[in-house]
Design goal:
Layout lengths: L17 H14 L5 E5 L6 E5 L4 H10 L7 E9 L7 E9 L4 E9 L5 E2 L8 H12 L3 E2 L28 E6 L4 E6 L14 H4 L7 H9 L4
Parallel strand pairs: 2-5, 6-7
Antiparallel strand pairs: 1-2, 3-4, 4-5, 8-9
């Protein structure tokens, strides 16, 4: 899933060093209930990431939004990451922005293909669009989200594209039916006509140029004495 790359600046000064971001993460971990946040780190020295328990996701995000020390007023993006080798293969990433303090907080929770994640639409109504996208692409189910419709794929599409668990060619194809004057589904037809492949390059395939007839005759018959 694509992440939001916008870098809007506010009037306040945000954390500018790894130490400041680490201190912010420690403050959040201390304010959260015990056991909610499992890991805090600052990858690349510029992003604060919090790994949390999905069962306590809503209280944690409410604290990050309402606590004046953190004031994460906006949810800029929700995206998914797939790790097929893990038991909980999906990571759901919440990118939060504080306009008051000019800092960004990234909250990450994990789940499997069957266990739903609490929807945050009651905290940030704009999350509906991002949760629909994550469900459409990965099949991540958000509990409490009543608008899980297809967003980027067709309504008749089966499966979830970014799981990569579907045949490469598919079973049906979409085409325009001139008789019905409408878009229609039909079985995939891979017609393999006979093809005469010419593997010679254009220079090798060209045996003569206009005006070279005498040169070829001399090569075959030999030069005149």
């Amino acid at each position: 899933m694509a992440s939001c790359n916008c870098r809007r600046r506010s009037a306040g000064r945000g954390p500018s060093s790894v130490a400041d971001l680490t201190a912010l993460g420690e403050a959040i971990a201390a304010a959260a209930p015990a056991g909610v946040i499992s890991h805090v780190h600052v990858p690349r020295g510029a992003e604060l990431c919090l790994h949390a328990d999905k069962r306590a996701l809503l209280p944690l995000l409410l604290m990050l939004r309402d606590d004046p020390r953190f004031a994460a007023e906006q949810c800029m993006d929700i995206c998914g990451v797939d790790h097929p080798e893990r038991p909980e293969r999906f990571e759901i990433v919440y990118n939060l922005l504080s306009l008051t303090h000019n800092h960004r907080i990234r909250v990450i929770v994990s789940t499997d293909a069957a266990t739903p994640v609490p929807s945050v639409v009651d905290i940030w109504p704009s999350a509906t669009w991002y949760e629909r996208e994550a469900w459409d692409m990965y099949g991540i189910v958000f509990e409490g989200q009543n608008d899980l419709r297809r967003l980027l794929t067709d309504y008749g599409f089966e499966g979830h594209p970014l799981r990569k668990d579907f045949p490469l060619t598919g079973f049906v194809e979409l085409r325009y039916d001139p008789e019905r004057r409408a878009v229609a589904y039909g079985p995939v037809q891979l017609t393999q006509d006979y093809r005469n492949f010419d593997f010679l390059s254009p220079w090798e395939g060209m045996t003569s140029l206009p005006g070279d007839e005498k040169v070829h005759l001399n090569r075959i018959e030999g030069p005149s004495p």
